[in-house]
Amino acid sequence: MWDYTDKVTEHFLNPMNVGEIENADAEAMTGSIVCGDALKLTLKIDKETDIITDAKFKTFGCASAIASSSILTEMVKGKTIDQAKAITNKDIADELGGLPEEKMHCSVMGMETLELAIANYRGEVIANDDHEHDEGAIICKCFGITDTKIERTIRENNLTTVDEVTHYTKAGGGCGACKMDLEDIISKVLAEKDIKAKIKSNTNLTTIQKIKMIEEALESVINPALKLDGGSCKLVDLDGNNVLIEFKGACSHCSSSSKTLKSFVEPKIQELVHSDLIVIEV
């Protein structure tokens, strides 16, 4: 039996704002009944002030899912869109007085549904688990959880173990076949944090330091991602601010290698080593 707070119990037994707003200004749905949790959120927004005047929800799920959805609708009413967008899954859980660790994915579902509803209202393109090809590769096939969602959840909640990832995303909670992949993703995110910490303590990097950090970024962060598609890359040389790299494996003959270079490899090296670096394929 889960150890629920009095507030979780209250919002489960007497949920607020259940239903659906007719002619809603913003709406979104995330999750899946097949996976055990689904949430539809509808919002009424004053277009002159951007203030959310009403919010309703329909949820399929456990007590935590219902309570998280209920409290979320109460939290957003009276807030501007930007204020609502700043609400995190931790804010939702804290407002309930806490959630069991194993049920934190319910607060994540609430946050993601709110983000998607706001994006839909603003006409922005935002990926979710129903758009996995835009968002990333599916890691957990049982629940359709992508690598990008897993990475984001790890960063935002400072997760360090596979069990924690499962509690927050449900990934790994089915057949368990993806647990090794989850370990790899955790290692990659932690490596990024370690590299960023080193950057803060090394503002004036020598050429040798840059080379070492580029190689570390390739080994710990970039290549683990490329290996999901059978590829990799290696550092050939550093000429001033020009980072010369060579693609290997599937990436060496991929028609999208130039796109991968500029949309993933270069931004990651700039983020993890130095913003002035330019990555060139040789």
Write up this protein.
The chain is an alpha+beta fold and 282 residues long. The protein folds into three domains: 117 residues, Alpha-Beta Complex (Sufe protein. Chain: A); 62 residues, BFD-like [2Fe-2S]-binding domain (Arc Repressor Mutant, subunit A), CATH 1.10.10; 78 residues, Fe-S cluster assembly (FSCA) (GMP Synthetase, Chain A, domain 3, 2-Layer Sandwich), CATH 3.30.300.130. The protein has eleven helices and eight strands. It has a three-stranded antiparallel beta sheet with strand order 1-2-3, covered by helices on one side. Helix 11 links the parallel strand 7 and strand 8. Helix 2 packs across helix 5, helix 5 packs across helix 8 and helix 9 packs antiparallel against helix 10. The protein is elongated. The N and C termini lie far apart (59 Å). About 3% of the residues have low confidence.
